[in-house]
Design a protein that fits this description.
There is one protein chain. This protein is 70% helix and 0% strand. The protein has one domain (4-288): Hypothetical protein af1432, CATH 1.10.3210.10. The chain has helices at residues 4-11, 19-29, 35-43, 46-56, 70-77, 79-94, 105-125, 131-140, 143-151, 153-166, 170-177, 182-192, 197-204, 216-233, 238-243, 247-253, 259-278, 282-288. It is mostly helical and 289 residues long.
Length: 289
């Protein structure tokens, strides 16, 4: 049996965050951090700078090509949102060379984007402030599965196969077969990377939101978003997906199960566009497959 920390230890040498992200994080933590120092750090990495400008000028952010420098991007979007976007870009880049057995990477990343979009839409419906951070957390919430399929691929596949055949919750099958589940592994990786506490706690509690402490509400949103993304990939109806969720989730979020369909439809509208923004090479990977 394996622990989450053991799996993360085996993969951290392969997946490290770039220096530019670490510098941005340090600037956010420093009392003297400023927009100019953050912009300078990003500009030192042309690839990340280009990706950030592409995102900032996309139709989804509504600035219509008016953001032509990193300094303006930081000023307009704000340091916090820039941090989160650079984090998403950095994590996808850190895992870009991974080719785990038994895992379709284009499918995985599209599912991850769907999680983020669904989480953000739930947050919007709940009147939550800062829903863009919820998008990034949702998008990164399944990262534990990448680690598991990279480090213990046969066990990860066995757990997924058994869960699909018996309808056992996947995280329970993973704990029984692997020794830990994808939520624990994702949280352990994020803790190792020293990501914000909110990321660690929400991702770690996504399968059992009541364990989310100060972030139980957000963990419940990511929980629902994950179920919506799974339903989307498995061509399951929204009604069936809602019926399989713990009824206490709806009470916690003060949501109606029927709202799943509307949230899913809204997320699906943006799925192709956001996937192309964050993972522009996915189409080429599918063509080569």
């Amino acid at each position: 049996m394996h622990s989450a920390q053991e799996l993360v230890t085996n993969v951290i040498t392969l997946a490290s965050l770039p220096t530019v992200y670490l510098r941005i994080r340090d600037e956010l933590d420093a009392p003297t951090g400023s927009t100019s120092s953050v912009a300078h750090a990003i500009s030192a990495d042309p690839a990340i700078a280009s990706s950030l400008l592409r995102l900032a000028n996309s139709a989804f952010y509504g600035y219509g090509g008016k953001i032509d420098t990193i300094s303006r991007a930081v000023t307009v979007l704000g340091i916090q949102q820039v941090h989160d976007l650079v984090l998403a870009i950095s994590v996808s880049g850190a895992f870009s060379l991974f080719a785990p057995r038994h895992l379709d990477m284009p499918r995985f990343w599209r599912g991850s984007v769907m999680r983020g979009l669904a989480a953000r839409e739930i947050g919007r419906n709940q009147g939550m402030i800062g829903v863009e951070r919820l998008f990034v957390i949702g998008m990164l919430s399944d990262i534990g599965h990448l680690v598991m399929h990279q480090t213990v691929p046969e066990l990860a596949l066995e757990a997924r196969t058994i869960a699909a055949a018996t309808h056992e919750p996947l995280h329970e099958a993973e704990r029984r077969i692997v020794g830990c589940d994808h939520a624990e592994v994702g949280a352990a990786l994020m803790a190792h990377w020293r990501l914000p506490t909110s990321f660690v706690d929400i991702v770690g509690a996504q399968t059992v939101p009541r364990l989310g402490g100060d972030y139980v509400y957000e963990a419940a949103m990511v929980h629902v978003a994950a179920r919506i993304a799974d339903a989307d990939q498995e061509n399951e109806s929204s009604t069936a997906a809602a019926d399989r969720m713990d009824p206490t989730i709806w009470t916690l979020l003060e949501m109606e199960p029927a709202s799943v369909r509307r949230i899913r439809e809204s997320a699906e509208l943006d799925l192709a566009g956001y996937t192309a923004l964050f993972f522009p090479n996915l189409g080429n990977e599918r063509a080569r497959a």
